[in-house]
Amino acid sequence: MLYLLKAGCSWNMLPKEYLSYKTVFDYFQKWRGNGFWEIINGSLNKQVRCFLGKEASLSLLLTDSQSVKGSFGKQENKGIDGYKKVNGRKRHLVLDILGLIVGCHITAANVHDSRALEYALEKSFRDGNLKRCKKILGDKAYRGDLEILIPMRFGIQLEIGAFEKHPGFLPKPKRWIVERTHAWLGNVRRLVKDYEKKVASATAWVYLANIRLVLRKIEKTA
Description:
Elements: H1 2-7, H2 21-33, H3 36-51, E1 60-69, E2 79-81, E3 86-95, E4 101-108, H4 113-125, E5 135-138, H5 146-154, E6 157-160, H6 175-186, H7 189-192, H8 199-221
Parallel strand pairs: 1-5, 5-6
Antiparallel strand pairs: 1-3, 2-3, 3-4
Helix pairs in contact: 3-8
């Protein structure tokens, strides 16, 4: 599966050195449906944080979305992001301070960020790793009712970064971490474009990309 993720090829192009692609696809579907990828992702995130000398439990979260062009043909939850001119889906990510993905919720690209954050946070809190969490940082797209709803529902503060005009590029404190994660996802061919018919499959590949990244970090620090 990690080979397919990196190569971006179709299932039937899996090299013969591996298992039959039908067998691999059956396992992918099974684990996609029972929450296996989310569990493995959360467990590995904790391990790499410990390896790097950080608390396993998170105290700060970051959030942002990424619109991704869809493929031709029928796809679940597909729409047009009028601002970025993208016809496809939008990945709503919740990250830790290392840029690792804690939660992912995928919608049509025309869904506003503020409408999806609660669902992304709900997935993040399932892991049970957010007992110390006090704050989540977001951009101006999350202004409004969420600044009241998020503290009421999850007990954490939603802090909106101030928008300031500067000549040229000026990285925001901690905001650059989100953009780096978007770049990481773009390093695997399977996620450069959203090829999946089902949202559940698209979400599973995002978690797999993070799992691949964490395994490489653990290998370097071990």
